[in-house]
Amino acid sequence: MTRRFGAAVALDALSLEVGAGEFVALLGGSGSGKSTLLRLVAGFDRPDAGRILLEGKDITALPPQARDVAMMFQSYALFPHMDVAANIAYGLRRAGMGGRDIAARVAELVGLLRLEGLERRRPSQLSGGQQQRVALARALARRPALVLLDEPLAALDAGLRERTGLELRALQRRTGASFVMVTHDQAEALALADRVALLDTGRIAQFDTPRALYERPATRAVARFLGAANILEADGPVPLDAATPAPAYALRPERIALRPTVPTRNGTEAMVEEVAFRGADTLVLARAPGGLSLRVVLVAGQATPEPGQRVALAWEASALAPLSA
Ligand SMILES: Nc1ncnc2c1ncn2[C@@H]1O[C@H](COP(=O)(O)OP(=O)(O)OP(=O)(O)O)[C@@H](O)[C@H]1O
C-alpha cells in the first residue's frame, strides 16, 4: 500500500503478509508509518494505492465495523459512563446479538481476562492493568480474525509491562486470532512477536523472526536500530575473516571475548574506556586502533578489565553477520 499526506509519503508501496494465528509486531522509529499502517488495516483511513486482503477477501473499501478486524487503542478508549460488562458487550449489542448470548460471551471474556468481580465497575474505578484487560476483552468480543493493538502496554508502568506482555501473548495463542501490535519498544517486540516488521520511512526494512532480526540484521540501518550491535566495515582497520563476503558486518557485543593475545584476524587490541556492571553482565566500551569503538558484553563470572587497561579482543568468524547495505 501507498499512503501520502501532501508531499509526505507515510507508506511507500509497503507490502506485508501476516499468517493466520500469527503475532506480528510493527517496530520502527517515530514517523516510520506504524500508526498509518494500523489505521489503514482497521479501516479508519484509505490507501492511495494498494489493497488489503483478509483471508483472501478484499476489504479495502469496507468500513471498520464491516471488517473482521478489531482495534485496541493505546488510550484504551473505554466508555467512561459504562461499566466493565457494558463496555465488553458494546460491540456485540451493535452487531445485533441476543441478550442471553451477550451475557454468556461477556462472562466468558471476564473469565479469560481475569476480570471477575469487576463487572459493575466503571473504567475510572479500575487500575491501569485492569483497564487494559477490559479494552482487550472488548477487542476480542466478536472473535475477530485480526486484532490490531496500538502500543498496548505503553500506558502501564514498567513492573506490570513485562508480565502483561507475556499474558497478551498467551491470550493470543489461546484465541488463535492474528495479532498485529505497534510498538516503539524493541525488547517488547522481540520478546512477544512471532515475527517483527521493522519499518523505516514507510517501507519494511526487514520482516523476520526476532532471532533472525537480532542475529542476522540485513542492513546497517536495521543493525543500528536494534541497538548495541557493533558494525565493522570490511575495509576497516580490523582485519576480518568472514564466511560470506559483504561490505560490512554486525557483531553482537556478547560475541566478543577477552583473549590473552590478539589473533591476526577477527580480533583487535583495544583500550578499555568504560566499564559498567549491570548485574547479569558487564558492559565494556573499548577503543580499537583507527578510532573504532567496540561494545563488549561479558556475562557474570568472567574477569572484567579496568578502565585504562589494554586488552586483546577476539570473536569467531561465525559471529560476523553480513550486512547488505
Ligand atoms: N493525518 C496526517 N497528515 C499529515 N501527515 C501525516 C498524517 N498522519 C501521518 N502523517 C505523516 O506520515 C508519517 C508516518 O506517520 P505515522 O504516524 O504513521 O508514524 P508512526 O511510525 O506511527 O510514528 P509514532 O511512533 O511517532 O506514532 C509521518 O511523517 C507523519 O508526519
Automatic annotation (TrEMBL):
<keyword id="KW-0067">ATP-binding</keyword>
<dbReference type="InterPro" id="IPR008995">
    <property type="entry name" value="Mo/tungstate-bd_C_term_dom"/>
</dbReference>
<dbReference type="InterPro" id="IPR017871">
    <property type="entry name" value="ABC_transporter-like_CS"/>
</dbReference>
<dbReference type="Pfam" id="PF00005">
    <property type="entry name" value="ABC_tran"/>
</dbReference>
<dbReference type="InterPro" id="IPR003593">
    <property type="entry name" value="AAA+_ATPase"/>
</dbReference>
<protein>
    <submittedName>
        <fullName>Putrescine transport system ATP-binding protein</fullName>
    </submittedName>
</protein>
<dbReference type="GO" id="GO:0022857">
    <property type="term" value="F:transmembrane transporter activity"/>
</dbReference>
<dbReference type="InterPro" id="IPR050093">
    <property type="entry name" value="ABC_SmlMolc_Importer"/>
</dbReference>
<feature type="domain" description="ABC transporter">
    <location>
        <begin position="2"/>
        <end position="226"/>
    </location>
</feature>
<dbReference type="Pfam" id="PF08402">
    <property type="entry name" value="TOBE_2"/>
</dbReference>
<dbReference type="GO" id="GO:0005524">
    <property type="term" value="F:ATP binding"/>
</dbReference>
<dbReference type="InterPro" id="IPR013611">
    <property type="entry name" value="Transp-assoc_OB_typ2"/>
</dbReference>
<dbReference type="GO" id="GO:0016887">
    <property type="term" value="F:ATP hydrolysis activity"/>
</dbReference>
<keyword id="KW-0813">Transport</keyword>
<dbReference type="InterPro" id="IPR003439">
    <property type="entry name" value="ABC_transporter-like_ATP-bd"/>
</dbReference>
<dbReference type="GO" id="GO:0015847">
    <property type="term" value="P:putrescine transport"/>
</dbReference>
<dbReference type="InterPro" id="IPR027417">
    <property type="entry name" value="P-loop_NTPase"/>
</dbReference>
<keyword id="KW-0547">Nucleotide-binding</keyword>
<dbReference type="GO" id="GO:0043190">
    <property type="term" value="C:ATP-binding cassette (ABC) transporter complex"/>
</dbReference>
